[in-house]
Amino acid sequence: MAINRRDFLKFSAGAGLMLTAAPTRGQAAPRGELPPDAVGILYDATLCIGCMSCMVNCKKANSEPGGALYHKETAGQIPFEYPQGDPIYDAPDNLSSKTLCVIKAYRDGDGEQPGQSEKGGPAFSFVKQHCLHCLEPACVSVCPVAALQKQPDTGIVTYNKNRCFGCRYCQIACPFGIPAYEWEKASPSVVKCQLCNHRYAQGGYSACCEFCPTGASIFGKVKDLREEAKRRLALKPGETYAYPVKRVDGDERTEQVVAEYVNHVYGLEEAGGTQYLFLAGVSFDKLGFNPRITNQVYPDFTWDYVSHVPALIGTLLVAGTALRVVTQKLEKKNNDAGKGDAS
């Protein structure tokens, strides 16, 4: 396929921009403590009833202007994923370009209540999946144009579609497999939970927490969520506890009988720590968490690869320019020869 001068210049300009915007070591793998005002979510699987209110309201909130699912061309439309041949209700089975938050269920045997199958009885649990907003996110470290950024005050990992050129390095780098891509669109974007950043900027907070009726998902400052998680692990199964609902610092509470927890807060240390924390009554590997994810900071892995991207792009740019010059000379020579034969 022939390339004209205009297309070549556009490619060269884009490649040059990528080269100059490539991350430095400091940008790719930032170090430092959790910001005092960093916000996140604590999800307690022992309280989740699988009502999927979080999923429905996540889509509604993020289909509004500023939301992670909003597009001008589909303004006012909520991207439901209907079962094939039954367009009645939203039924996604995984995270996708139309679904930022999904509830899944685990069952071992005939379990109907959260429990530990290792103790001989059946086990059952729901789990809520979406972006974990890592303290040192691999997706941010590999993005060569800073389309993904970790906000310095809230710690929320946000996405700017105007910067993205679709390399999809973020999808490969994320150890949790979170980012999705709009393959079906002519002008696609990367899609992931941004913790309802557009609502937080207006004084609101994550829709999945605001509309959770049981307090399974609560929003707040990460330091407060960590303390709340540790308090729950210290509780004795069978006693009653007043669980916060919607927000960890709110006044609304619900009295519930304490279930038996796995003695671990997932997200405190995994992948260097995350701002989405988990408690459960079933081991986390059974809930879909990859046991190979360690406490290792993932940008330490990805930097060895992404640091070579600028040099690779520069080499391709130089090679492309040289190839273009050569082909232009050959075309001119062939054209001159053709004119000579015609005369």
Protein described:
This is Hydrogenase 2 protein HybA. It is found in: Cell envelope. Keywords: 4Fe-4S, Iron, Iron-sulfur, Metal-binding, Repeat. By secondary structure, the protein is an alpha+beta fold. It has 2 domains: 1-29 and 308-334; 31-296, Alpha-Beta Plaits, CATH 3.30.70.20. It has 10 helices and 11 strands. The strands form 5 sheets. A 3-stranded mixed sheet has the order 8-1-11. The chain has a two-stranded antiparallel sheet with strand order 2-3. A hairpin with an 8-residue loop joins strand 6 (180-181) and strand 7. Helix 1 (5-21) packs antiparallel against helix 10. The longest helix has 34 residues, at 309-342. It starts with a helix and ends with a helix.
Properties at a glance:
TAT_signal_bac_arc, about 15% strand, 3-stranded mixed beta sheet, about 350 residues, alpha+beta, metal ion binding, Alpha-Beta Plaits, metal-binding, repeat
In short:
Helix content is 30%, strand content 14%. By secondary structure, the chain is an alpha+beta fold. It folds into 2 domains: 56 residues; 266 residues, Alpha-Beta Plaits (2-Layer Sandwich).
Instruction: Please indicate the count of domains.
Output: 2
- What is the strand content? 5-15%
Outline, from the CA principal axes? elongated
Give the topology string: H per helix, E per strand: HHEHEEHEEHEEHHEHEEEHH
Poorly predicted tracts of residues: 6-11, 21-30
Strand count, sense and barrel status of the largest sheet are:
3 strands, mixed
Estimate the mean pLDDT confidence: 86
Q: Give the CATH level 1 class of the largest domain.
A: Alpha Beta
Q: How many distinct beta strands?
A: 11
Question: Helix/strand/pairing class, anyone?
Answer: alpha+beta
**What strand order characterises the main sheet?**
8-1-11
CATH architecture annotation name of the largest domain: 2-Layer Sandwich
In which range does the helix fraction lie? 25-40%
Per DSSP, the total helix count is 10
